[in-house]
Amino acid sequence: MKPAVFDYSAPESIGEALDLLAEHGSGAKVLAGGQSLVPMLNFRLARPAHLIDVNGVGSLSYISANGSLRIGAMTRLTAVGESGAVAGAHPVIPAAVAEIGHRAIRNRGTIGGSVAHNDPAAELPAVLMALDAEVTARSTDGERVIGMQDLIEDRLFDTTLGDTELLTEIRIPAAAAGSTFGFREFARRHGDFALAGVAAVITTDGSTITHAALGAFGGTHATRLPTAEAALVGAETGDAAFAAAGAGAAADFPATSDVHGTAEYRSHLINVLTVRALNDASGQAGGGNG
Ligand SMILES: Cc1cc2nc3c(=O)[nH]c(=O)nc-3n(C[C@H](O)[C@H](O)[C@H](O)COP(=O)(O)OP(=O)(O)OC[C@H]3O[C@@H](n4cnc5c(N)ncnc54)[C@H](O)[C@@H]3O)c2cc1C
What we know:
The protein is of the alpha+beta class. It is built from twelve helices and twelve strands.
């Protein structure tokens, strides 16, 4: 199918993009990499009167690691996944990016688009939640900083961004010294959206876990896993704590049924994937997904 008719603008600066958003409001859609929006237009699941193509706004594409990590919204997923600065600051991010679709999709898709689209099966919203990331949103009225939880929690293909706001930057605080990560997902074929997945970041003092942050995807919405995190903090790394966290993760996870699997199956997956991710994080097992 072809998209419904729309007007098209291609601003070259953030200011021009914000003026267009202020002018067209809820009738407009920002076009980033187009990897989700263009199929939605073609299926007529989205019918914006106006497309604001921000691919010409070069100032939205950058990676800066100076204390916290700052990534411009239009930075392509391939650039994020291949950045030494990102891998050095938060290696869980490239581990997750490698599982997003196929290379052609990552070459066009952007980190801002992935966050703003907020597909419940997308990797990055859950990973960024676990990393306590924030985003910057700008409009002609000014700028605000929104925590990932406040941006996407309980939302499905939607965020708390206003109609006239442009997501401009993702900010990720520096990791605690010595923190380690695990990232596991299960998809039927490589490149498919995952049925379920989990990112785990833990910090230990000796063998005692002092901090644990887990983000899960593949349920009704991306979410942190607070029961699993509580089971880990203060516990010794090892099978007992990880089994308790796996059970907690399954209890926290907003599992859903569809043609690919039942809610029960997805809850089981989250339990198993959480244990594996924690084993990876604690160095008790090798990396890899599945
Ligand atoms: C075959 C296929 C497989 C895929 N597999 C995966 C996968 O496994 N995991 C995964 O996470 N994703 C997957 N994707 C989606 C892909 O990662 C998309 O790139 C991403 O979801 C959207 O990024 P985009 O830059 O293409 O955004 P677009 O498609 O351009 O936009 C998506 C939405 O976000 C809004 N938006 C974009 N940028 C901004 C901004 N700066 N400010 C405000 N709103 C904005 C748009 O208006 C639109 O509503 C897949 C896509 C395809 C086609």
